[in-house]
Design a protein that fits this description.
Layout (H helix, E strand, L loop, with lengths): L16 H4 L4 H13 L9 H11 L8 H4 L3 H7 L3 H22 L5 H4 L8 H10 L3 H7 L3 H17 L3 H11 L4 H8 L3 H22 L1 H8 L5 E3 H8 L3 H10 L5 E4 L4 E4 L3 H10 L5 E3 H15 L5 H9 L3 E3 L2 E3 L5 H12 L4 E2 L3 H15 L8 H11 L1 E4 L2 E3 L8 H13 L4 E3 H7 L1 H7 L5 H12 L4 E2 L3 E3 L5 H17 L3 E2 H7 L5 H9 L4 E5 L2 E4 L7 H15 L4 E2 H8 L4 H6 L5 H11 L4 E4 L2 E4 L7 H9 L4 E3 H11 L6 H7 L4 E5 L2 E4 L7 H15 L4 E3 L18 H11 L3 E5 L9 E5 L7 H13 L7 H10 L10 H4 L3 E3 L4 E3 L6
Length: 821
């Protein structure tokens, strides 16, 4: 026995299993010799038994059986804490011996035949206990005996893999991601030499892995049947982890696949991961947080993978970015934000160019995505939304996937357009012709909706304007129409009005007229709705040269307003202005644009040097306002007057800058983002105002107001502030102006559900509501009531009589309510 070849890691006690079996010396020698040359493959165990031994204990069919004979029954009995359990282990040992004897020895003792034939897992626990000092000592060193044993085996193997500390350090450096070249510089080696050293180490590692098998490493390091994570390796191998992970990544074993997003390896069949990757690519590009659980649960159920839920979530979410309440496979752009908001909150379309609606839209976007940095200029958002949607009403746009279409109906409309002998077709005509089919089979219920859908479907085929569809913009008919309009203006030899053109060309759509004017550089816009042909200009080169020098001076200092130029030249170029009937800045702008289109940049009412950016009036005033958090309206007005660059009224200007400033007092503007105007605060303001309005449905702000119950918005309440907040933020309320001018309070707050749109309708409603459909005795009674309600300043407007809102019934005056409540 002592001369037999056994593994060096096992000591052979005095009594072995063969001694326990009470065999003769010859029988023991025969068995030992047989075990010494016998491999586990010779046992012909069932496949499921091999799988169990292989995965759990790293037993390979090419291994020899001699290890089992090195166990000492006596030694195991001394260190084993549970004697009853020891007897079960002993039975497993005898089962293995029986299998061996039945296959390789000519005799099988009766005592062995009485034991069960199944090879129990517990035998391998006994094997590891026989290697180390004691069961308790081993238990304190690792979570499992198997992991500890493998740890020792790996450490021993790495001692042999690395011939020198230099080799070990080279692999350590490479494991950090260093290149072959930079690694070699540490030791003065070439890239090739470093590669040779690394390959030698990897060859040794691959040999080790072929013996230990990845499945055994997986099962001993973690509870997972699929994934071996870096954390698992580090918890067992410590400082060797980095090298081991690098070698495992670089190995050529088909059962090992490194997965970056999991920070670990898939051990065994990885086809599920490939299938999962393909499946994840089919998931939506973007979805909300609330949908995540559904996608993960459905995917887990579909693939039936034994994998931790959190890790599985990580596999999916690694392909997504998280912004606000959304996951997205790609960076979330403004268009994605717009689409998500429209889909969630505007299934029936959004009304563009509406300040209140844009405020709501911005709040919705913030709720879904957080602060994604939407453009400050509402117009930029309007333009982008219009490009992503389809016109579905007057100023209303809807997402394409929210439209119900019928291809047969659209094909019929398209065929009608093609077959028509007319080049220009009105959308109103098309809608009326196909109205029954459209209402029955599609969601198209107005001519604007039809225009939007046709434009989406056939934009590359036809030319679309506001009111009409042109089949061929370059057709002879289209060209003739433009030529005819230009010829008519030229023939008049004077300024021609829009009404004169419409009278000459019956049924001419405004869009067609504008198209004809845009296509002819000789037609000059002379004033609103007035045109002049360029041949009517009385001019010589001297005049043009003077204006050229003047524009050079102006544009060298930046953009210049045409209003300023007109004001400055009014005296010294008065003869030129009179001779050409130029009585305003619009005509002067058209002339200069006609003379110098290639010399300067023209944009609306501004002119700038060629190649430079034209600074608009809006840009100028916003640059001025950017210096303030609060500004006096009187100062603002003085500044606007000083630059002489706009015909805006102050009221219009205040509306224009309402995205940044709102009026908080008679002569004070305050930066909007400095106020507390959250959705909850706005709702509270609405509720409080509706309570003050009561059942009358309206409230004049000229009346004394008690702001005791209004929420704190960060500044003292005033009637001006209330009007501003209602006008720009409150959906359930509306502002009706009783007079023009911005200096005084002229506003009435109205319950929006009354559908009152103008001042006359408000007065009619107030009178009829007060009279409860009965009549006033006289006009004086009506006037007195309206004065007390602060709805008029002096007399009842004549327009109420002209529109029939007030009728004289002899002894009675009756107010007719022209408002649907």
């Amino acid at each position: 026995m002592e001369n037999s070849v056994v593994p060096k890691s096992f000591s052979i006690p005095q009594r072995t299993i063969l001694d326990f079996l009470n065999l003769s010396e010859n029988e023991r020698d025969y068995i030992w010799n047989s075990f010494e040359h016998l491999r586990f493959a010779d046992l012909d165990l069932p496949l499921d038994e091999w799988d169990r031994l292989h995965h759990r204990y790293c037993i390979y069919q090419e291994d020899f059986l001699e290890n089992i004979l090195a166990l000492s029954i006596e030694y195991i009995y001394k260190i084993w804490h549970d004697k009853a359990r020891f007897c079960e282990i002993l039975n497993s040992v005898l089962d293995l011996a029986e299998n061996t004897l039945c296959h390789n020895v000519s005799f099988a003792p009766d005592v062995i035949k009485e034991f069960p034939a199944v090879v129990r897992e517990d035998i391998w626990i006994a094997v590891y206990n026989s290697v180390y000092d004691s069961y308790e000592a081993e238990k304190s060193k690792a979570k499992s005996k198997d992991a500890y044993a493998l740890n020792i085996a790996i450490q021993n193997k790495f001692k042999h893999i690395f011939k020198t500390d230099r080799d070990k350090n080279i692999i350590k450096i490479r494991a950090t991601g260093a290149t072959l070249e930079s690694t070699g510089q540490e030791y003065g080696f070439t890239r090739t030499r470093v590669q040779q050293i690394e390959q030698k180490v990897l060859n040794e590692f691959n040999h080790f892995l072929s013996r230990k098998k990845p499945h055994y490493i997986l099962q001993t390091f973690t509870q997972s049947n699929t994934l071996l994570l870096v954390n698992d390796i580090q918890s067992h191998l410590g400082e060797l982890s980095e090298i081991f992970i690098y070698c495992l990544k670089k190995c050529n074993n088909k059962d090992v696949l490194w997965i970056n997003e999991l920070n670990g390896f898939i051990i065994g069949d990885s086809s599920w991961y490939i299938d999962l990757t393909v499946y994840i690519n089919t998931l939506p590009d973007m979805f909300e947080d609330s949908e995540l659980e559904i996608y993960i649960s459905n995917t887990l159920r579909l693939f039936n993978i034994e994998i931790d839920y959190n890790l599985f979530s990580k596999l999916i979410l690694n392909r997504y970015n998280h912004t606000g309440n959304f996951y997205s496979k790609k960076k979330i752009y403004k268009a994605d934000v717009y689409m998500a908001v429209l889909k969630r909150y505007y299934p029936d379309g959004i009304k563009l160019y509406d300040d209140f609606e844009m405020m709501r839209f911005r709040n919705y976007a913030k709720d879904l995505f957080g602060n994604v940095g939407l453009p400050e200029n509402d117009r930029a958002i309007y333009i982008r939304i219009a490009a992503l949607t389809v016109l579905c009403g007057r100023g209303r746009y809807i997402l394409l996937d929210q439209i119900r279409l019928d291809e047969e109906v659209l094909n019929n409309i398209h065929q009608f357009i093609i077959d028509s002998d007319r080049n220009v077709i009105m959308f109103g005509e098309l809608f009326e012709r196909f109205k029954a089919e459209l209402l029955d089979k599609t969601s198209i219920d107005n001519r604007f909706y039809l225009q939007g859908v046709l434009r989406y479907k056939y934009e590359n085929e036809f030319y679309f304007t506001k009111d009409i569809l042109i089949k061929d913009i370059n057709s002879e008919q289209g060209i003739k129409l433009s030529i005819a309009i230009e010829a008519f203006i030229k023939e008049q030899g004077r300024i021609v009005t829009r009404d004169e053109i419409n009278e000459e060309f019956l049924g001419l759509a405004e869009s067609v007229l504008q198209l004809a004017i845009a296509n002819s550089s000789n037609i000059l816009l002379w004033d609103y709705g007035k045109y002049l042909h360029s041949e009517q200009l009385v001019v010589d080169n001297t005049i043009k040269e003077r204006f050229k020098k003047l524009l050079d001076i102006y544009t060298n200092q930046g953009s210049v307003s045409i209003r300023k130029i007109y004001h400055d030249i009014y005296v010294r170029e008065n003869e030129f202005l009179i001779n050409n009937n130029i009585n305003g800045h619009i005509a002067l702008y058209s002339v200069l644009n006609f003379w110098f289109p290639d010399d300067y940049e023209f944009s609306r009412s501004y002119i700038a040097a060629k190649g430079s950016t034209v600074t608009t009036f809006d840009t100028v005033i916003r640059e001025y306002l950017s210096n303030f958090d609060e500004v006096y309206i009187s100062d603002f007005k003085d500044y606007v007057d000083s630059i002489r660059s706009s015909n805006f009224t102050i009221s219009a200007l205040l509306d224009n800058i309402s995205d940044e400033f709102i009026r908080v007092d008679s002569d004070l503007l305050f930066r909007k983002d400095r106020l507390n105007l959250s959705e909850d605060v706005i709702e509270s303001i609405e509720e409080t105002t509706l309570a003050l309005i009561g059942n009358t449905g309206y409230l004049s702000v000229k009346k004394p107001l008690d702001f005791l119950f209004y929420p704190n918005v960060g500044i003292k309440w005033t009637p001006f502030l209330l009007v501003s907040i209602v006008k720009y933020f409150c959906k359930r309320l509306k502002i009706i102006n009783t007079a023009t001018g911005y200096r005084y309070l002229n506003e009435v707050i109205v319950d929006n559900s009354l559908n009152i749109d103008d001042y006359d309708e408000l007065l009619s409603y107030a009178l009829s509501h007060e009279a409860k459909e009965s009549s006033f005795k006289s006009l004086d009674e009506m006037k007195r009531f309206l004065l007390e309600a602060e709805l008029i300043a002096n007399n009842i407007p004549k327009s109420l009589f002209d529109k029939g809102y007030i009728v004289d019934e002899g002894s009675k005056m009756k107010a007719l309510q022209n408002v649907t409540v």
